[in-house]
Automatic annotation (TrEMBL):
Protein name: Metalloregulator ArsR/SmtB family transcription factor
Entries under Gene3D superfamilies matching the protein: Winged helix-like DNA-binding domain superfamily/Winged helix DNA-binding domain
Domain HTH arsR-type: 1-90
CDD domains for this protein: HTH_ARSR
Parts of the chain that traverse the membrane: none
InterPro entries (UniProt xref): ArsR-like_HTH, HTH_ArsR_DNA-bd_dom, WH-like_DNA-bd_sf, WH_DNA-bd_sf
Amino acid sequence: MASLDAAFSALADPTRRAILARLALGEATVMELVEPFDMTQPAISRHLKVLEGAGLIVRRIEGTKRPCRLAPSAVAEIDQWLGMLRRALETNYDRLDDVLAAMKPEQ
């Protein structure tokens, strides 16, 4: 659960969500990620450090560049947790449907 806490904490920031949306399109370097933002490279690097610490992205070293990409396992863990909540809600809605059906007046 600690990894989920870190992931949701990282996702709380709109800049980090935008970075993840960009990385959903494919791998990118820090300089490519800086372009759409009115931020410095060190500021984006700090956001990337948070995302990496939360396990949402992975970086590799390619010479002087450090391309980033999404970490599929982290997104899968979040999806699994949300799936559990979806199933619980569906069960509740099914029970509510049963109660409402039983309340219908006889015609």
